Amino acid sequence: MGAAAHIHSVEDARRLAKRRLPWMVFDYIDGAAGGEGGAVRNRAAMDAVTLTPRILRDVSDRSLSTKIFGTDAARPFGIAPMGMCNLSGPGADLMLARLAAQYKVPHGVSTVASTPMEKIIEVAEGHAWFQLYFSGDGAGTFKLVERARAAGYQTLVLTVDVPEVGRRPRELRHGFKMPFKIGPWQFLDFALHPRWSLGSLAAGKPQMANFEMDGYAFDRTESRARATWETLARLREMWPGNLVVKGVLDVDDARRLKSEGVDAIQVSSHGARQLESAPAPIIALKTIREALGPEFPLFYDSGLRSGEDVLKAITQGADFAFFGRALQFAIAAGGEPGLHKLWDVLSDELSIAMAQTGMTRLAREANG
């Protein structure tokens, strides 16, 4: 029996991933900022959202499909941008891209992806969005924007909640750096996880593939603090497609973003990886929806652990949701079969929750 058969929930995938991944890699994927109180608070807030069962309704014919920016999607959830996904398993970026193509959902391609953006959008059959970090003086950032446009990306996601990279003690204790620097502790860690190590060795060390271009060397620790509203205005002027701003928790910021002409806002705390004291995004989501009205597209990520969580996000005002580290856990646990098994679990959980609450169609659609 393959490992995928043992995945019945996100927690199952996480437990298996923890067993199989080197400690350094697992803690990079799983860790949060500071003492990780933000992650605990996020989960508590999500758990506190309730869904009311409704009875004696014909819910035999249910659909999980929706629209996002006017395009059909087979699920109301997609793939959040995540850096260095190939650490979870060789070829993980392309596993996610194939999943996006199959279900016609967005695959967020991180600035620090370990596969070139051109290859990912090709394998995703166009169902890919490019996520952008502003860093340094912005020269390299705008080169990446031009490259994404040339590659055929129609949606650009500007992440704004990382003016400085958050301190994540679990990473620091293991000496996690990009690119890798392997010392005695890391060597021991890899030696004790031979399945991952041999597979990664055969595939080649993961690289930050989008920076293999002339005139740009990426430093993960470089300050991103120079981004301003003028930066956003410049991006809006140069980007003809959909512009999403990700990492928004403040109502006044959300109102201004709408007035500045962005096409959607993604409510997110970066998975509690940035500011430990940030408010729970699921609470901010409801407040922002009330402020912006029913029509403006709002997306959601951070702390989703089930299909039922997706329905909670939709009831709180999200048009579309994104899973992050949960998908990496599934890949680490069971490779591509594990990823598809967890995707089916999430889909089943959402469908069952819809039936329990009397829904046959999703209440919101991100038409853009």
From TrEMBL:
Active site (record annotation): 270
Signal sequence residues: none
- Where on this chain does glyoxylate bind? 28, 133, 168, 270, 273
Keyword check for Oxidoreductase, yes or no. Answer: yes
Q: Which residues bind FMN?
A: 81-83, 110, 131, 159, 246, 268, 301-305, 324-325
Recorded hits in CDD domains, A to Z, give: alpha_hydroxyacid_oxid_FMN
Residues in domain FMN hydroxy acid dehydrogenase?
2-368
Q: Which cofactor does it need?
A: FMN
- Which keywords accompany this UniProt record? Flavoprotein, FMN, Oxidoreductase
Which GO-annotated molecular functions does the record name? Answer: FMN binding; oxidoreductase activity
Question: PANTHER family per the record?
Answer: 2-HYDROXYACID OXIDASE 1, S -2-HYDROXY-ACID OXIDASE-RELATED
Q: Which family does it belong to?
A: Belongs to the FMN-dependent alpha-hydroxy acid dehydrogenase family.
Q: Tell me the protein's name.
A: L-lactate dehydrogenase (Cytochrome)
Q: Which organism does this sequence originate in?
A: Litoreibacter ponti
